[in-house]
Specification:
This protein has a single domain, classed as Rossmann fold, CATH 3.40.50.300. It contains eight helices and five strands, in the order E-H-E-H-H-H-E-H-E-H-H-E-H. It has a five-stranded parallel beta sheet with strand order 2-3-1-4-5, with helices on both faces. The longest helix has 18 residues. The chain binds shikimate-3-phosphate.
Length: about 170
């Protein structure tokens, strides 16, 4: 495979989990965008939001995306909000095949409810909030995606098989 595989989707869509499994299956290297930002900044995402605000995080996110897109043949697990900026989408489109993972708000809540490392969801851990933010971003995710895989009620290996199948038919 020549190009990067970029996993996008809302928080809790399974990008990190799927990326790990795809790495095993393909032998490709993986990069987790959030982990990359945290390492580069030497600070958690919660602390970045708390100390510098979301705008700062979004700026760093774009800088890191540009760096990450210099590499080839990687599985890139993207932060859930990265598609919102046009500039980011341009870099992503040029960098590889974009795979959208989707999940219902209910499935999403189940997957994220015990985690406290997503500042946007802290204090907003409910289906209503998730539905509203997901609806705001939905058209964007769909417009950007080359391949779409629904993840509800599927195992990680089923999801990965579907991704590989759909990419091979592109
Ligand atoms: C965010 C998603 C998070 C992380 C940050 C903001 C978002 O990534 O980048 O907390 O705006 O959707 P995950 O989608 O990997 O949780």
């Amino acid at each position: 495979m020549e190009n990067n595989i970029l996993l996008i989707g809302f928080m809790g869509a399974g990008k990190t989990t799927v990326s790990r499994e795809l790495t095993k299956l393909t032998g490709m290297e993986e990069i987790d965008m959030d982990a990359y930002i945290v390492e580069k900044e030497g600070m958690s995402i919660n602390d970045m939001f708390a100390q510098h605000g979301e705008e700062y995080f979004r700026k760093k996110e774009t800088e890191c995306l540009i760096e990450i897109m210099q590499s080839k043949n990687r599985i890139v697990s993207c932060g859930g909000g990265v598609v919102v900026k046009d500039e980011n989408v341009e870099h992503m489109k040029a960098g590889g095949t974009i795979v959208l993972l989707t999940a219902t708000p209910e499935t999403t809540l189940e997957r994220v409810k015990n985690s406290t490392d997503r500042p946007i969801l802290n204090g907003n851990m409910n289906v209503e909030f998730i539905t509203e933010l997901m609806n705001k971003r939905k058209d964007r995710y769909l417009a950007v995606a080359d391949v779409i895989v629904v993840t509800d009620n599927k195992s990680v290996s089923e999801i990965c098989a579907e991704i590989m199948d759909k990419i091979s038919k592109k």
